[in-house]
Structure formats: structure tokens, C-alpha cells
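Pipeline run #58 for the internal structure catalog. This entry was flagged by the ingest filter as a single-chain record with no existing model, so it goes straight to prediction. Upstream metadata was stripped on purpose; only the residue string is passed forward. Reviewer on rotation: M.T. Logging verbosity set to normal.
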Amino acid sequence: MKALITGASSGIGRDMARYLNKLGVDLILVGRNNIELKKLKEELNNVEIINLDLTILDNVYKLYDKTKDKNIDILINNAGFGLFGNFINTDLNRELEMINLNIVAVHVLSKLFINDFKDKENAYILNVASSAGFMPGPKLATYYATKNYVLKLTLAIYEETRRINKNIHISVLCPGPVNTNFNKVAGGSFNVKSASSEYVAKYGIDKMFKKKLIIIPTLMMKLGVIFSKIIPMKLLLIINYHIQNLKIKHNRTK
């Protein structure tokens, strides 16, 4: 088998690459940090690296053109980032980059590869969303909105696809806080214990191969998702606002 992983130069994407490689899967790894990609290529076997910035739509199509004939069996849309702050103050250009990466790249690659996978005996698409996809997120408004999009898009195409092709297996990974480079990029810090990237990567891949639709690592986040569905929306907004505010304050005290 061969897997294409975006956002593979660090965090969950890198650890998914390591775990899949142990399982004997060949890899095409995509990321913006070419130095880290080269390090990972030296560490693993049967790896091709592609250095591209997927916040640029033309590069998303370039990636597809480079890989469409490489007999890919697994597409993992993992690349993404967040941005802490009040919506009125956060940088619009940075938010548009986030929307391009977290939404547009996922949408385009999912659509193009799902058509290529129609004749495969077995193919997988794993979109990395977040527990944020189940709720609104004051102070992380755009990030939460992008993950809502990824979650709902993945659920919809799962239902469409299972009715016409039993060989394409679609899953969405929805972790909570993970110990990655997310905090540094987003400008905040989790004030609760984060799951390890290695654990989330392995859990996500294992459940993907078991054809699980919604993959939520850790009991705490499963309970959190249930809780978010049963409390009034205005109360949820207040709770999430204070949680995100604590992350920003916690980051400033480091």
C-alpha cells in the first residue's frame, strides 16, 4: 500500500508516517518544512517527499498532478493550523491562509482522490478534524469553524460513498489537545493535559483500518463531545470562551 500524508513534517502527520512505515506502507510525505521532511525521509523506508505550501490553491492542484499516477491507496489530509485571539483582532490574511489549508486543500484533495479510488480494491481517506469540529470556539473562531467544515464534509461524503462503493473507506479523526507544534503556531497554550502525538497517530490509523467513521482518541474528549451536545448553546459558548481565554493567559505566563 501507499499513503499520501499532508502536514507530515511534524506532529500527528509525522507520527502517522512513522507508524504506517512500521506497518510496511510506502509513503509520500508533504509539508512546508523541507528540512524536517528530509530528516524523516532519512529515518524511514520507501519515502518520497514533496515540499509544498498548501495554503496556496495552485499548489494543491500541483500536488494532485504530481501524485495522481503513483497508485496511492490512502489519503490523509492532516495539514492545518489555528490562530488564537478575538475575531475582531486576528489577522485576516492569516485566517484566509488557515481557511485555504484547513478547508480548501482538504476539500479539493478529497474530491479528486475519491474519484481516483473508485476502481481500487481497498482505499482509505482519513481527514484530520478536531474535537473542535463539534462546537463553536470563541477566541479560536476561525479554527473551530474550519474543523466543523471538515467534520461535516467527511460525514456527508462517507454516507454518499458507502451507498455506491463499498471499497472506499472514509474516516475523520477528532482529537482534543495534542502535544504538537499547534500552540506555538496558534499563539496559545493548552491548560489541560495533552495526549501524545504518537498515541493519537497510532489510534487514528488503527481505527481507520477498522473502518471507524468518527475517531475520537481519549475518554476525556469522548465525554467532552457528549457534554457539548446536551448543554444549551449559550452556556457552551460561555464555557468555551473561558477555556480558550485560559489558554492564552497560560501561554503568556510561560
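catalog note: The chain is about 50% helix and 15% strand.
catalog note: The domain at 2-252 is CATH 3.40.50.720 (Rossmann fold).
status: ready for reviewer M.T.
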